[in-house]
Input
Amino acid sequence: MKKTFYLTTTIPYVNAAPHIGFALEIVQADLIARYQRLMGRDVFFNFGSDEHGVKIYRRALEEGKNPQEYTDEYAEKFKALRSALNLSYDAFVRTTDPHHKRAAQEFWKLCVAAGDIYKKNYQVKYCVGCELEKTDSELVDGKCPLHPNLTIELIDEENYFFRFSKYQEPLREFYASHPDFVVPDFRLNEIRELLKKGLEDFSISRVKEKMPWGVAVPGDDTQVMYVWFDALVNYISTLGWPEDTEKFEKFWGTKEYPNALQFAGKDQVRQQTAMWQAMLMSAQLPHTRQVFIHGFITSGGQKMSKSLGNVIEPMGIVAEYGTDALRYYLLRHIHPFEDSDFTMEQFKEVYNANLANGLGNLCARIMQLAETNLPEPVKVEFTGYPKEFTDLLDAFKFNQAFDYIFARIQALDQTITQTAPFKVVKTNPEEGRDLITELVKELAAIDLLLEPFMPETSQKIIDAIMANKKPTNLFVRKD
Output
């Protein structure tokens, strides 16, 4: 087993407050980071904010702020997710950081040296929402299907381009030799279909006079980098690349032993699994080891949209129900790979049934028995995770891993009903205490399984076991 583990989320645009969809991605990644640490690995977990591009530039001007002031304000809102969602990331990279800008410029120079950057005049249709060029086949009734409320813009200017087409065959060979590169596998099939249509070179700069908010192109002060080219480099700039080669190789890996795991949404398959990998090939750097692609969260069967008024923000849920309640729902009731619906009615129902009446009530019952009948805390030993559990986490089947935990919770609840230790201890104290001790040991084993999923709750349970005391209500029922 490799001793180090690197994982990163995508870095969100700082043009709006964090929504429940991105909370899903960062909580999924945090689960894996915590799990890998518990498995004994030295983990580097990257998070951050994407702060350049026309979308952010225009939004800042609309609010009467300069872009740096605007991005500073919104970056803090994403940093606030650390405490709100109890995140354990090791770095928060900002694409406006001086080091990141230098790294992006060094990466650009490597691609120039490979002969993969050239300049030309072009005209293209462009979606500001995606910050991506669009072909007619990608549009529906002349609109981007992901941002139908935005007008497709025409760009007609001279920019630098990346020779994406050069890497069509290398990417095809790469996918063939790395069949598990993308999880789930049907997302890799999407990229294979893209290759069949043929890769087209893409623009990687903008005219500075029209859009000044970006990283300066080396050697050309009339152009700034296109936001995607700049932003993707964050995955390695966060490791101190290019200066800190030791840290880079330790966590990102080498060409022979790539080590990086990336989390991304289904709208980023092309960018993360093709564009970024081609850029790494051009710069002669190790490829990503694996990319995990999650689905979207819908609300009431519809895509979340401010215009529809169905956007769900995580901060309000955490304020009312607590951090671990939201982590629980995202990791168990949102499918890892497919789109899933989220409504507050559904959330409240499972909160009461599975947390307040389920886990919370079980812990209270067992620890009340222990506090009343055992003279001292039960000594518990943690022997590691069962293989059926780790296999599910290694396959990113978070919901099934959580189902495994709750199956043991339900089984423990049934054991209490069947053995009735609260009755036995009155007629046969020694046998009753033995039954209660075994209940506490199984609760401790369940607690270890819960630790990467619900760290705050896990800590409260183990503290109660160590103190041999019934904890205060873990989850208060909501009427």
Remarks:
- The two ends are 48 Å apart (CA to CA).
